[in-house]
Specification:
The complex is a heterodimer of chains A (103) and B (228).
Chain A: H1 2-24, H2 28-50, H3 61-91
Helix pairs in contact in A: 1-2, 2-3
Chain B: H1 5-28, H2 36-44, H3 53-61, H4 63-81, H5 101-124, H6 132-148, H7 159-182, H8 195-223
Helix pairs in contact in B: 3-4, 4-7, 4-8, 5-6, 6-8, 7-8
Classes of the chains: A mainly alpha (103), B mainly alpha (228).
């Protein structure tokens, strides 16, 4: 049980860190990395939940979900990286344009 | 950092901490572990057609999730391919450029091993860890190595065949699901007697789609804005 607590705390920390980095950083590549960290936290939690079912074999359904999640993460990251490169090619910057009057 | 950005960052930090605390609270307040779902899976394993639980879940019990997942991959490929079909091929075929010896050595060593490994992983998925995604990723890695060495693999496949490969994953699910519906069963319900064969067929199509899709993602992302 305490092992699950360790994993749960680690997963929550990853989620919090990833969320903050996603919002706070202006550089787009950092946002992409933050998104990956956020996803890793969720997948860590899923894995921990799988092993919670006491002695015996772990629950395989969260395993399948994590596999699916990894493929989706790769696809989203690839699309995001391509979009960032496109933004860089078009504007020469790697941050999103700031709106006037808001900051 | 502008003056008004600091309170925004503090707000973001607070919100992230709150989110983390919420996740922790949700995780810790889960009811004591019940093996209901696990037991249900074990009970249904005989009818699944394979002996590995994760494969049975991915392709049998939760095949719909897998179908949506390859759809996401296809959408990503389409999204990047929209950046310009010609740009995919630019600067990738550099077979005339001299390749550094370590890279050449790595390619010669790794690509055959990756291809063999992919075949093995695909076939062993019915009884052990493995399956379409792992095999597709290995093939995509081999493709990426070849692209880095100047031999664009995915780009050499003619355009209509490449698009066919991209769609093969979703197409396999459409065929399997459609046939099930035509026979009066539920969507994606595989007949228990031949479920193993169905799953292998779907996995072969999935492997082709994932390998081609991932390799195309790499090639296209590399080519976008590469002229700068």
């Amino acid at each position: 049980m305490s092992r699950f607590v360790v994993y749960a705390v680690a997963a929550s920390a990853l989620v919090a860190l990833g969320m903050y980095a996603l919002v706070a950083h202006r550089h787009l590549v950092r946002k992409i990395v933050a998104l990956n960290i956020l996803g890793s936290g969720v997948m860590l939690l899923l894995g921990a939940v799988a092993y919670r079912s006491g002695p015996g074999r772990p629950d395989s359904v969260p395993h399948a979900m994590v596999l699916t999640g990894i493929v989706v993460t790769v696809s989203v990251t690839a699309l995001a990286v391509a979009l960032v490169r496109h933004i860089h090619a078009l504007t020469g910057r790697v941050t999103l344009a700031e709106r006037e009057g808001l900051e | 950092m502008t003056r008004s950005a600091r309170p925004l960052r503090a707000l973001a930090a607070l919100a992230s901490l709150a989110l983390g605390a919420l996740v922790l609270y949700a995780a810790l307040s889960l009811p004591p572990a019940q093996a209901e779902l696990s037991a249900a899976v074990d009970e249904a394993m005989e009818r699944s057609g394979v002996t590995h639980r994760v494969t049975a879940i991915l392709l049998g019990f939760r095949g719909w999730d897998t179908c949506l997942e390859v759809t996401v991959l296809l959408l990503a490929v389409l999204g990047i391919a929209r950046a310009g079909p010609a740009s995919e091929r630019s600067g990738v075929d550099r077979a005339d450029r001299a390749i550094e010896p370590p890279l050449a050595w790595l390619v010669r060593l790794a690509v055959p091993a990756l291809v063999l490994g992919a075949g093995h992983v695909l076939l062993v998925g019915s009884s052990g860890p493995g399956g379409a995604f792992q095999a597709g990723s290995l093939l995509a890695a081999a493709s990426v190595l070849l692209i880095l060495a100047g031999h664009g693999t995915v780009q050499r496949i003619p355009e209509p065949a490449r698009r066919g490969l991209w769609v093969a994953g979703v197409g396999a699910f459409v065929v399997a699901g459609g046939l099930a519906l035509l026979r009066g069963r539920l969507l994606l319900e595989l007949p228990p007697a031949t479920a193993g064969a169905w799953m292998l067929g779907i996995e072969v199509a999935l492997t082709a789609a994932i390998a081609t899709g991932l390799a195309s993602l790499f090639a296209a992302a590399r080519a976008v804005g590469g002229s700068r």
